[in-house]
Amino acid sequence: MLNGCAGPPALDSSPSTLALQPLFPVALGQVQLRPDPLDLALQIQALHELRGDACSNPDPDCAWTGDLNGVWRLHEHPTFAPLIEELSGHAHRYLAQLGFEPARVALHIQRCWPVLSEPGQVVGRHHHPNAHLSAVYYFNGDGSGHSGCLRFFPHSQPNELVPGLAVGHGGPIASPDPWNQPWVDVAPRAGLLLLFPSRLDHAVLPNDDPDDVRCSLSIDFALSAPFSSVVDAPPEYLAPHPSQWSAVSAR
Q1: pTM, to two decimals
Q2: Which of 14, 159, 216, 241 could potentially form a cystine with 227 if both were Cys, beta carbons 3.0 to 4.6 Å apart?
């Protein structure tokens, strides 16, 4: 130990062995829940009712997303509130596994919305700059990926050495290679919850199931300091509790 830091990992004593150690991984949380079939059926029915006659966002190839269509407070809907309370509990567990001290951070649902993908529809590559932690929960899917995988993209390709080589196009890096993956796909499965940093780029691949609509919900969480009646300032990089903010009116 030196200055409280761990030394390099132990290496094989053989001089001919090269060991690779992964550094700074992204934490993707996964929880497989076992939803009650009746609850699941009622929730999917409610999702279709919330969507109404719409079948896409303005682009017909894009899945219908509630956040762009006025349905962004699903956590207050009586059909979904108990489920989202359960999902939020797993978000707290995710933070704990990342080393957050529960008494020193507050977790808030900023928005929660449904996503319905008809056959052939996608969600383009994006991230959520308004939030800190994001979640996706699937109401259907069999794990095959036919209904459209969630694709995660790395912030950068630190191991490609020459920028651009990892994306392919005839480059010298063998594909697939675990040290230079251009993306990672996760297949939808009914009851699967995913948690990940909101700044991580992601997209939804086409729904190739001609007989089913892919149904999921998304949650954006924000972190703040806990509410405190004490005058002590919150940590420098953690916003004060929202109840302690002051609105500024336009003049």
Answers
A1: 0.90
A2: 241
